[in-house]
Backbone:
């Protein structure tokens, strides 16, 4: 805010409270001084709490354990940074590794690991960065079973922002991709509290990181503007043709312990992983009502291998999965069509879809 003072203050300059006066030619202008907010964001509070807890943990380990971390840090040697060649101390290495373990849902590690595993880049097919969706598709899996996806983002307030990589905040840590897809739309809203806007610049850092002894080193960096179509192929977003646990309506006869069913377009193939249990009744199978599925589903049937769970010796059975999604019926039926039926069973794999 700028104010033109009266002639009585023409010779006044300097600051008083939150007001600064400056002389420009024959005129004097008053402007309000910007004031830095001392209020910590939720993310800052979480990060500082996590850091302080891990730092205190170092003081509680034994001297022998400290020597292990110091030895491991010294074996790393020096590495280049913007300020020159630096090395890491045993204390800082302990804090770095255990901070990422905490982010990945792991407990504190007191002993230094035998080996450290740096984070690494990701590969993906497409990305939707829209006001409604933040979705990666075609994500290539990692070969390390201990790896998790670490995703950081920062929605810039100005399209001209160029140096905002240090402002990215952790949005999500995911153990794996869901059939190659990662949908962090809700996680983004939970973190920042507002949706993206068209034309907004977004900074993204994403990598695979070992949840046991990983540290941040190599990661994929993306600086993209928000738009309605996908970033790589310019396609409109369409929901994946999938049935998940969330759309099933609970009942007293059947219980789902995991339901993930995906149908490919074109010549239809179904990839699924289902575990269910019949809790009452005598039918050889389970039935679930659902709240509604994508329009691609109508009347889909797959005949696939199944088996009882471990407590019943993994008895083999043939399972028919029938999905109905029309005006007359909205239900999913799992029926035993061969073998010895056990009420607690699982079925998984990739199969042709028939009608």
Residues:
């Amino acid at each position: 805010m700028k104010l033109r003072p009266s002639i009585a203050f023409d010779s006044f300059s300097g600051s008083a409270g939150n007001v600064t006066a400056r002389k420009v030619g024959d005129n004097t202008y008053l402007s309000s001084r910007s004031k830095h907010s001392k209020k910590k964001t939720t993310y800052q509070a979480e990060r500082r709490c996590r850091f302080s807890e891990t730092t205190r943990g170092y003081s509680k380990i034994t001297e022998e354990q400290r020597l292990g971390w110091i030895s491991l840090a010294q074996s790393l040697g020096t590495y280049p940074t913007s300020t020159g060649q630096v090395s890491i101390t045993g204390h800082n290495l302990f804090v770095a590794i255990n901070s990422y373990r905490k982010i990945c849902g792991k407990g504190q590690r007191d002993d230094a690991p035998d080996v450290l595993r740096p984070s690494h880049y990701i590969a993906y097919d497409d990305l939707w960065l829209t006001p409604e969706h933040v979705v990666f598709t075609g994500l290539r899996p990692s070969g390390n079973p201990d790896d998790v996806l670490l995703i950081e983002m920062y929605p810039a307030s100005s399209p001209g922002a160029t140096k905002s990589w240090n402002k990215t905040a952790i949005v999500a840590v995911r153990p794996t991709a869901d059939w190659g897809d990662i949908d962090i739309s809700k996680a983004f809203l939970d973190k920042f509290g507002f949706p993206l806007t068209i034309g907004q610049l977004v900074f993204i850092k994403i990598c695979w990181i070992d949840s046991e002894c990983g540290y941040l080193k190599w990661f994929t960096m993306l600086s993209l503007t928000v738009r309605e179509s996908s970033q790589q192929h310019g396609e409109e977003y369409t929901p994946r043709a999938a049935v998940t646990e969330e759309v099933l309506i609970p009942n007293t006869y059947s219980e789902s312990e995991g339901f993930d069913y995906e149908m490919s377009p074109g010549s239809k193939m179904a990839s699924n992983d289902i575990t269910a249990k019949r809790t009452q009744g005598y039918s050889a199978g389970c039935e679930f009502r659902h709240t509604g599925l994508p329009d691609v589903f109508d009347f889909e049937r797959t005949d696939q291998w199944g088996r009882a769970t471990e407590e019943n010796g993994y008895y083999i059975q043939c399972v028919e999965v029938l999905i109905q999604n029309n005006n007359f019926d909205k239900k999913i039926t799992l029926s035993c069509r061969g073998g010895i039926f056990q009420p607690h069973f699982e079925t998984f794999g990739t199969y042709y879809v028939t009608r």
Observations:
- The chain is about 15% helix and 40% strand.
